[in-house]
């Protein structure tokens, strides 16, 4: 993040006065260069199944299917097949529940 000195003073007046006005304690700070991690999810676009797997109940899954169909993200035929699968085989048939932070955990970030 970059900002000019005046913006820094406006956003962080107390910190700026401590650092720039030479008041307070002097210390040296060193930063290690972090290895740049590649993002395994860069460019990944979740599918309707990914969203269904976040649903906690069948009603939420139906809302997802209806929403995606209404937006034109999925066809009417595909939406009907998803509803049929949900009714006949249940929510678990789409895969295990995706907890919050699922993608971070899979990427090894968390």
Write the topology of this structure.
Layout: H1 5-11, H2 13-20, H3 48-52, H4 58-71, H5 76-89, H6 102-107
Helix pairs in contact: 1-2, 4-5
The helix content is 40-55%
* SSE pattern: HHHHHH
> What is the molecular shape?
elongated
Instruction: Calculate the terminal CA-CA distance, rounded to whole Å.
Output: 23 Å
Largest sheet: none
Strand content: under 5%
Task: Give the total of beta strands.
Answer: 0
Radius of gyration: 24 Å
Mean pLDDT: 87
Structural class: mainly alpha
Q: Care to describe what's here?
A:
Helix 1 (5-11) crosses helix 2 and helix 4 packs antiparallel against helix 5 (76-89). The longest helix is centred in the middle third of the chain and has 14 residues, at 58-71. The two termini are 23 Å apart. The protein is mainly alpha-helical and 110 residues long. The chain contains six helices and no strands.
């Amino acid at each position: 993040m970059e900002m000019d000195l005046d913006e820094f003073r406006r956003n962080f007046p107390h910190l700026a006065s401590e650092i720039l006005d030479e008041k307070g304690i002097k210390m040296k700070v060193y930063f290690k260069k972090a290895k740049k991690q590649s993002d395994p999810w860069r460019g990944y676009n979740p599918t309707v199944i990914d969203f269904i797997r976040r649903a906690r109940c069948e009603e939420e899954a139906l809302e997802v299917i209806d929403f995606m169909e209404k937006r034109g993200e999925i066809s009417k035929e595909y939406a009907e097949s998803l509803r049929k699968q949900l009714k006949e085989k249940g929510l678990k048939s789409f895969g295990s529940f995706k907890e919050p932070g699922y993608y971070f955990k899979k990427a090894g970030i968390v």
